Amino acid sequence: MPRLHYRLLRAFTLIELLVVVAIIALLISILLPSLRNAREQAKSTKCLANQHAIGQAVGACATENRGYGPTWDDGEIGGSGGHQYFMLTWIDTLADEDYLGDEKIGICPTDQRPDDPCYARGRQWVFYFNNQSGVGEIPKFGVRTSYAINSLMHYNNRKDKFQDESRQIYAADGWWTWFGEISAYWVAYESVYGSPPPDILVSPNWEGSMVAWRHNFRYGSNVLYVDGHSAQVLPKLNLTPATINRNVDTIKSFSFLPGEDTDRFDYDPYRGEIADYVGRSPAFLHENTQSVMNGTQVVMRVPADYPTERLCTEYKTINRTWKKFPSNWRDRR
Question: Quick one: CA torsion of 173, 177, 183, 186, rounded to 10 degrees?
Fold first, then answer.
C-alpha cells in the first residue's frame, strides 16, 4: 500500500500574532475617523435637505398668506401651574396647514434629542417633549423640533426682512424653537479660555444659546436663509477676550442686519460695524396688534392683516383648532 504523507502545518509564533494584531489596530485607527467623518457628513447633508424642504414649505405658506409665515410656538400659554408643558411649534403649524408633509422633517439627525443646552433650558423653564406621543414614553426636558426660527420672522413684519434675502437667516439648527441672535459664544469661549462657559444658558445672555452648533463635531450650524437656500455656518475660533463677541461672520449671515454684534437681544437696536444701521430698531417693536383668542385679549406684535387663525401656533391651541395634533397639552404626552 502506498504510504500516506502527512504535512504538519506550522503555527504562528507569538511575535507574528502580535504583529498581525498591531497591523489590524493601525488600520482601524486610520479608518475609524474617516468612517466617523462620513457618517457626520451624511447626517449634515440630511439636515440641509430637511431645511430645504422647510424652506419650500415656508415659501408655499407665504404665497397663500400675503407673504406671512408661522409663529414660533405655543409655549407662552403654559399648563396648569405655569409651564410644565408639551409645546407645539412653528414646524407643527406648517404641517398642520399641509405645507410640510411630515413634522418629522423638523428633526435633525445629529440632534441628540435633546442636546445638552436644550435639555438644560427645558429643565429650567419646565418644558417637555416625547419622541412619539401616546405610547407611554417617559417625557424628556426640551422641545420637539431641532430647528429654531429667527424671532424677527416669528413677528412677521415685512420691514424686518433685509433686501438681500440670501444672507438673512430664517431658521437654524436650534437648541430651542426660536433664536434672537446668531451667536457661537460657547464655542468661542472654549477656544479663548480652554473650557466651556460656566452657564451656557446665560452666555453671553439668555438668548445667546438658542442656535445649535452640532455639526462637524460641534463646530458648525446648518441654517435656512430667507431666500430658501440652506448652508452651513462655521464660527470664528481665532479670537481673544476683546473679540469674543465677533464669533460669527455676520456680514455673510445675520439675524437682523449685516455686521451686527452676536450678543444682541432680538429687540435691541443695531450695534455693529456698519455706520448706516447704527441705532435702527426692529420694526416689530412698533406693532401692538390685539387679537382675541377664545375670549382672551392677547398682544400679538404682528401686522394687523396677519392670518392669526391659520398661522399663529398659540391661537390654534387656545381656540382648539389643531387638525393633526392635540390642542390640549396634556394629550401630547
Answer: -80
Q: Is 266 helix (H, G, I), strand (E, B) or coil?
A: coil
Q: Is residue 11 part of a domain?
A: no
- Residue 29 falls inside a structural domain: no
Indicate yes or no: pTM above 0.85. yes
Look at residue 7 and tell me if it is in a domain. Answer: no
Q: Is the pLDDT of residue 180 over 80?
A: yes
Q: Which long-range contacts (CB under 8 A, 24 or more apart) does 296-303 make?
A: 301/155, 302/71, 302/155, 302/156, 302/157, 303/68, 303/156, 303/157, 303/158
Task: Give, in order, the Cα–Cα distances in Å from 133 to each of 74, 115, 139, 228, 234.
Answer: 17, 20, 9, 30, 34
Q: Which domain holds residue 44?
A: 36-332
String of DSSP letters for 66-91: TT----SBSTTT-BTTB--EE--BHH
Domain count, the chain: 1
- Closest CA relative to residue 206, chosen from 231, 187, 179, 237: 179
Confidence category of residue 269, pLDDT binned at 50, 70, 90: very high
Distance CA 209, CA 179 (A): 8
